[in-house]
Design a protein that fits this description.
The chain is α+β, with helices and mostly antiparallel strands. It folds into two domains: 3-52 and 276-409, no CATH class; 82-263, no CATH class. 55% of the residues lie in helices and 19% in strands. It has helices spanning 3-16, 18-56, 86-95, 134-137, 150-155, 164-171, 214-220, 240-254, 270-313, 315-323, 328-364, 374-400, 404-409; strands at residues 60-65, 67-73, 76-79, 100-112, 115-116, 119-120, 125-130, 142-145, 159-162, 180-183, 186-194, 209-213, 229-234, 265-269. Belongs to the ABC-4 integral membrane protein family.
Length: 411
């Protein structure tokens, strides 16, 4: 009996015990689905995040207020330094000499209602004051309309760029350009609508945002202790460390930081956050391996029991094969192949379900791409072979050691 004949016999045994085979393959499929699904979801989300950071570019850095690491007070991050003021941000913008672009922004409100006629959004819109460089620095695109111009930013003209969700809620299929919206007690003319951000990078908050000019935003701020965020993008990535060093020195001078004391502000590259997210994804992948391993361990025990039962039920068949000249090696090979076939059937189903489930989770969390994890698919196939060999080894060994005369007497 050659290897191909063993496969045919194994498939025949699978068909004869369909219910038992399906239940065993289902357990294996659940384990593979958990493994492939979690790893696919993590890779899909990570690919989406990497796309976001590639839009921002690895040649940019941020300067903002310094917060306590891990410190939180009633759900808010604890500040350990005074905010960066508008005048400090403008001073840095004037003095920092480099080849690139600098933008200044400020958060005005995070729970705003936006109105147009009788239509009103939920009180969850975010109002941000920005300059004309904000869109390009943050990888945002316009679905329709135009960006702010420098004169509008400098003079605080009441114009606004709104998120896609707000535009659909207030205007439906009507063109929102040059129409007016009201929020925070003021009236603004819509000059642009942002492309849909989906769930990318922090839910769909990007679709519920309203951008106003920086000078106009200052008239909306109710407190003087508001932090202004600075983002710098360097034309030549090789110069980013030099520009960061210069920006740090200027900010220390502008904020009167004493020699020997720590910076009273935070400066970080955009890629720093990406590195932290990569670290989190590693833990998620480890979790996926653990969950998949535990499930597959249970499946392998179940498969071994089924194979032992199969050996007992087919004792007479084994005796006949040995009497016809089948060697112990061929008998062992037959049952090993049968175990591997059952595992592969479950593995194929698990891989398909895992890809669908993983991409479904990634889509809900913001990924816009359908990710096919070739590496994890190959890993799933290899694991199924390993599980099949481990689970089928003892039953197949036991079958190969049966005495043919005693086996033929078995009823």
């Amino acid at each position: 009996m050659n290897f191909l004949e063993n496969i045919k016999v194994a498939l025949g045994a699978v068909r004869e015990n369909m219910l038992r085979t399906v239940l065993t393959a289902l357990i294996i499929a659940i384990g593979i689905m958990a493994l492939v699904g979690i790893l696919t979801a993590v890779d899909g989300i990570q690919a989406s995040i990497n796309d976001s950071f590639s839009d921002l570019g690895a040649n940019s850095f941020n300067i903002g207020q310094k917060f306590a690491k891990g410190g939180r007070n009633r759900g808010m991050r604890e500040s350990i330094s005074t905010p960066i003021t508008y005048y400090q941000a403008q001073e840095l913008k004037k003095k920092l000499s480099f080849s690139g672009v600098m933008g200044i922004s400020v958060g005005v409100s995070f729970n705003t209602e936006v109105k147009h006629g009788s239509q009103t959004t939920n009180p969850n819109s975010q109002v941000t004051g920005v300059d004309e460089n904000y869109l390009g620095l943050n990888g945002l695109e316009l679905k329709t309309g135009r960006n702010f111009i420098a004169s509008e930013v400098e003079n605080g003209i009441p114009v606004a760029i709104i998120g896609n969700e707000i535009a659909e809620k207030l205007f439906g299929k009507t063109n929102p350009l040059n129409r007016f919206v009201n929020f925070l007690g003021k009236r603004y003319q819509v000059i642009g609508v942002l492309s849909s951000q989906g769930g990318n990078m922090g839910g769909n908050a990007g679709d519920r945002t309203v951008l106003v000019t920086l000078e106009n935003a200052r008239t909306l701020l109710k407190s003087e202790s508001i932090n202004f965020d600075i983002k710098v993008k360097v034309s030549n990535p090789a110069e980013i460390d030099q520009v960061m060093s210069e920006a740090r020195g200027l900010m220390r001078k502008i904020r009167h930081d004493l020699p020997g004391k720590e910076d009273s502000f935070e400066i970080s590259k955009s890629e720093t956050l990406a590195e932290r997210l990569d670290e989190i994804s590693k833990y998620l992948k480890i979790g996926g391996f653990v969950i998949g391993f535990i499930t597959l361990l249970g499946a392998s025990v179940g498969l071994m029991n089924i194979m032992l039962v199969s050996v007992t039920e087919r004792t007479r068949e084994i005796g006949i094969r040995k009497a016809l000249g089948a060697t112990p090696r061929r008998i062992q090979e037959q049952f090993l192949v049968e175990a591997i076939v059952i595992c592969q059937l479950g593995g194929i189903a698990g891989i398909i379900l895992g890809i669908l489930a993983g991409n479904g989770v990634a889509y809900l969390l913001g990924s816009q791409k359908f990710f096919i994890p070739w590496l994890w698919m190959l890993l799933g196939v290899v694991i199924c072979v390993i599980v099949g060999v481990i689970s089928g080894f003892y039953p197949s060994y036991r079958a190969s050691r049966l005495d043919p005369i005693e086996a033929l007497r078995f009823e």
